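Teaching soon. Got one?

===
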Amino acid sequence: MATYRHRNPTRPSPATVSVTMEPDQLNRDLTSAEIRILTAASLISPSPNPGMRTVSAAALYPTTSTKTLELPEHMTSVAAMEHVGFTPAAATQVFNNYYTCPDPDNYPYGLISHAHDKVKHPRSMAQVGLRTEFQDALLDPTFKDVLRTNTLLYWVQATLSGRYRMLSDLSVRLKRLAERLEGNSAAARCRGVEMPEEVMRRPPPRPEGECYLLYKGQAARTVWYAGEEWEKDGSFNMRQLASLPVPPGDFNGRIPAVYFNLEAETAELYRAWAARRDQYCETLMIRVELPKGYVDGLKQEEVFYGKNWKDLAWVHPSLHGTRFREYREAELIKGHVCTGVQKKRWMKVEEVQEKISKKNAMKVPERDEEVMAVQWAFLSAEHEGLGVASAGNVFVDVIPPECLFGESP
């Protein structure tokens, strides 16, 4: 795998690291009993910083690190909004807007929705009160091509939501650990999702003639929404990996799709981007081996760099009316990854072919020559079939979070 920020050869093996993934709950704050149990075990302690507590890293991750982290005491608080990326003044404003909402019946949204409202029309991230750390993460030049696959507003809101969900998940880990400690469990340590044994073995790739190798890199927390990630028959629940139709991807328009990269380097770039944006979140590198017989039997379309690719990059296929019907009816679409989305949306139709160029096709990282990155989009009707076809052939590396290896957060 490629090397990016804070990667360290002394890290524990990815196979030793697990993550907690489950649907959201209304209240994940620690109870007074849980605080008492975890304090007695020297896993949490009061912090001199208002609204925060000091937490042992070993209480949150399966690690032997002696590091401690500073985390908010409450999910619904000014401290939580500072944690996700706001300055103290902006965090206070977001919390007050939520707490004093004059019409909660007609605006029954949570704190993070008020955070989204705060950044909805930014002229700059500084103007809406986002911390320098947050700005530096999103504007890291290492990941400029990934940033430009969508609007800045999208990435700001996605990062705020992702950090808030991860904070919620860390609170659940503490609650579960307190429950095991109270029961005097011999397994009273941080643990997370258990993957099937064959996944953790990660055998070498099969010969290229037997299957197609595909890769996906992402944050672990993003696989919350569709239930358990592993089905009872051992197949991977591909719905966990589906891109939601809002905003649409390059090829899926308004229907969900599972995107994979053809190159491991591109998937690693996406994984490292997720790690860069949230130092508390584990990340995944997923390798899928798909039988050629299954893939070759799908209704496929290809849209590589050229006239049709430019048109699809400018306007998604669901908005083309009767044009490009073949793409909307496909089960699998293969094509180059588009970047530079923030600029091309304002083009006139007659400008598309001239102004969208090879600069808008993402390049594979760390290649000597400029090779355009390729993505495969499996459209929603094929998600179940994709899981069955890949059963026993999905291999996952779980990479520990940056907070365990960089400077103290």
Remarks:
- DSSP finds 15 helices and eleven strands in the chain.
- Residues 1-26, 192-201, 223-227 have pLDDT under 50 and may be disordered.
- Residues 152-182 form the longest helix (31 residues).
